[in-house]
UniProtKB/TrEMBL annotation:
The chain crosses the membrane at residues 54-74, 81-99, 111-132. Pfam families: DoxX (PF07681). The keyword ATP-binding does not apply. Keywords: Cell membrane, Membrane, Transmembrane, Transmembrane helix. It is a multi-pass membrane protein. It comes from the Bacteria. It comes from Anaeromyxobacter dehalogenans (strain 2CP-C). It is found in: Cell membrane. This is DoxX. InterPro entries: DoxX, DoxX-like_oxidoreductase.
Amino acid sequence: MMRFLETDDSTTRLFQRAVLGLVIFPHGAQKLLGWFGGRGLDATLTGFTQGMGMPWLLALLVVLAESVGALMLVAGVLSRLAALGIASVMVGAIVTVHGQHGFFAPDGFEYHLLALGLALPLVVTGGGRLSVDRALVRRRSAGRAPSALPAEG
């Protein structure tokens, strides 16, 4: 489990996860809580399942990735998992909805592609500086006794 949390001390990754989390969270809050002019959880799940034919569990995972996952990214908690969830949502949005509208906003996939560009390096390298993941790994490493050196001979 600790290898999954390992990351470097990159300030770049800190900015990537903070920006991605802060940009994605309002979209998740719309879906989960009805904030920022959103419809809330029940209406969102109904729209995804009945309107788009999405399985209920997948619809719930989308909402959780954009809301809880975004907050996890900001804090650097399970950064790789949170970034993977957001990346998956972005790929799904491109394939199912936005890809047919072309590249440019407001209905195109340029926003989703930018989010993927921020998320994928986090999946590969972790959350970087000031992440809870990094603090946990460092704390655990500091608590271990140094390994014995091989005998010379």
